[in-house]
Structures are given as C-alpha cells and as structure tokens.
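Feature request, filed as a ticket because there's no other form

It would be nice if the structure record came with a short human-readable summary line next to the tokens. Right now we just get the raw output. Example of a typical job, pasted below so the devs can see what we mean:
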Amino acid sequence: MLSREECILIFEHIDGLIVVDKEAKIIYMNQKTANSIRVNPKEVVGKHIKDVIPTTKIHCTVETMKPDLTDAYFLDDCTIISTRYPIFDDDNQFFGVVEYDVFDNKDLLMNFLKKIKSLNNELDYFKNELKRLQSSRYSINNIIGESASIKKLKGEIRQAASTNSTVLITGETGCGKELVAHAIHDLSNRNHSNFVRLNCSAIPSELFESELFGYEDGAFTGAKKGGKLGKFQLANNGTLFLDEINQMPYFLQPKILRALQENEIDKVGGSHSLPIDIRVIGAANENLRSLIKEGKFREDLYYRLNVIDIRVPPLRERKEDIPIIAESYINHLNQFLNRNVESISEEVFIMFMNYHWPGNIRELQNMIERAMNRISWNEDMLKIEHFDHLFNEEDQNNVIEFNTDNPIEEAKKKAEREVIMEAFKVCDGNKTKVADLLKIDRSLLYQKMKRLNIRN
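Raw output as currently delivered:
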C-alpha cells in the first residue's frame, strides 16, 4: 500500500488536479495547479471554487453528480480540457468532485487534434481502399459510346441503381453485360459492400448448391473444417451477380427462387435458415422464354428475376461507337504493349464499319490487340496490312473489296446503307423514329434512302 507521502507525490504530477466537496468548496489543489493560476494551495482550501477559478465548471458536476468527460473552459486566454468525476463514500453518499486536466494549453490540444485528424485521414484512406477492393471493378464511365442506344442504356442503368429490385441483363456474348452489372452496383446505395460474381456455366452441377449457399462443418465427406460461406453470404448487404444464369441447373432453381422471395437461405447441412439482404442481378445470353418452353428454366424464377429488364445492344447496332471504343482500347494497350499508336487508317475504319461483329466488343478488342502486336514499335498508325487474315473465311463477304474505281466511296455508301437499314430494324420501320435516331432531318433521310436504293 502506498504511503501518504507517495500518494501526494503522485498527485503533484497530475495536471490541473483539484478536489472539491459537495458544496463545491476546495478540499485539495496540488502545487502544479496552484502555480498555473498563481495562488497558494493552502490558502485556497475552504474557498468556493468559483471564487478561485471563475470560469471552471466543477460546480456543474457538483449539481448533477454525474461525470463530465473532456469538457472545455477558458482560463487566461487558454483552452482547458478537463475531466470531472463525482466521488461517493462507502455508503454511496455523495462526497465531492475530483477534476484533472486532459490538456492544459492550446498547443497540446491543437497537436492532439492534428494527430486525430491524421488518424481519421488514414482511416478514410483505408476505408476507401477496402471499398475499392470489395466493390465493383468498373463504373458507368467504363461504358464507352455516344450512340443513342448507349445513352438509353446508361439511363436504364441509373434508373435500376436507384432501386433494390432484381435485374435481368440480356444480350449477346461479348457485348458487356458484366460491365452493366458493375455499373449498377457502383451507382447503388450498396456500393460500400461486396460485389460478388458467379459464372453459372463454370460451376459443376454437383458443387453448385454449396457454392451458392455454403455448407456447415461436416456437411459431407471432404467438407472443409469449419464449413464455408456461400456466395449469398459473401454478398450480404451488397450485390450478387449471376452471370449466364441460363446455365443454372434446373434442380437448383427453386432454392434460388426461395432465397429471392424469403430473403433467407439454407446452408448445406444447416439446421436453420439464415437471413440475407442482397440484391441479385442476373445475366443471360440466351432467350429465357425459349428455355421455359423447353422445360429448362422455371417460369416463376424468370418473373422473379425479370423485375427490371435491361438489354445491352450488340456492337453491330451501334457502329457509330466503334471509333471511340477503338481509341480508348488503343490508349490502354499502348501502355500494356509498350506501343505508341496514335490513330487508325480510314481503310481500317471502313473495314470495321462493314463487318457484322458476331463477337461484339470483345471481338473488336481482340482484333485491335492482335494488330498492335503485329505493328512495329516505331509505327504510330494501324493500317489495313496489320489486320490481314484476322477475319475467318466465312466473314470475308462482310469486308470491303478494293477492286472498284473508288473503293473508299463505295465502302462509305455500303456502311451508310447498313447503318440506315439497322436503324429501320430498331425502329420497326418508323421513318420519323429512324430520322431521330440518326439525328438527321426526315427530308435528308428520304434523300439518302433514294440515293442508296433503300425501300421501306
């Protein structure tokens, strides 16, 4: 046990130590505190604390008999941050208040606040990094294009992001369905949580249930000790993206439907249901209605998924976006492949505009990358010779032939005719809508139709 002298020695090293009784009269003030306010500690004993330190708030704690942590008051133009605790005796009778300073000058306080700010900045940085790692890899800005169909797509993405309903994204392979899913998650109020992707065509059917729902310890032979979290749990509070959902095993579809309807799942080998809060986005590269007729996809699951329907247009329906897509990908590949390509020749663009792009954007990217691997390091333009043999034989009819008197003009006419014909398909033959889509006057549309021998 400490002696009286040892206790006093300790007390003398505590900044701002003052003890008052239940009437707020000073019982004890250490020498350090007395020196700071220029008084004699023995002479102030018995005086009301307000008579010695007018700005103090000890008397407030005497009245409330409740602790005051890190409270502030001013003394001689200094900000004092102090902590006050009520004192009770063995019989739980209120005895008085003890106060000591956390900070006794402005400089200490400011240094402390700077450290707190620095720690908060570091915390914010790591929070953002965690969010970036857990969240979607892409945003709506990664969807490149200025065509009417892309502007419409971006509008649908923003609308879908403002709700929590399930989304079904349809489109051909390679057109960017996963990019759309990432963009929806990134714009949603779930973007602080995980974006979890599962390719339904890449999971063996016997592992599908445990991959989606997880399993408990000892659920089956060879199960991981301690069990495993499934994709639904990993995506909790976030977004679960089921890519190529048309490939999901039929026997598992009722369990997916229950998870979506009841917001709960059953782990393999589990004894009770687990609540979940996720948003599901599905993507399909086949017509699900046709699969329903074939008995390969449940109609009730289709309607549960297809609350919001987003169709991603194929590249052949938005060929006007090809130049900006190509430029963006070339800039990316210049760094990756250590090249310095600045442009693409007009002949190549004509070839691009006359091709039907069955592989969509993925095929365009592949074609550009292959060409940039063939170009010399000191060349700055992709030319027609860099694309030799990149189209397979059955596609040769879709590429312009250079055997006319004016091949460039012929190619332009062919490309313009194809764009107008596609516009008529998109607009169901409505000339007014076609003109709006192409951003030309209706009279100019009629002139082009006559010149290019388009009948509709």
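Something like this underneath would help us a lot:
The chain has three domains: 4-103, 140-313, 316-451.
The domain at 316-451 is CATH 1.10.8.60 (Helicase, Ruva Protein; domain 3).
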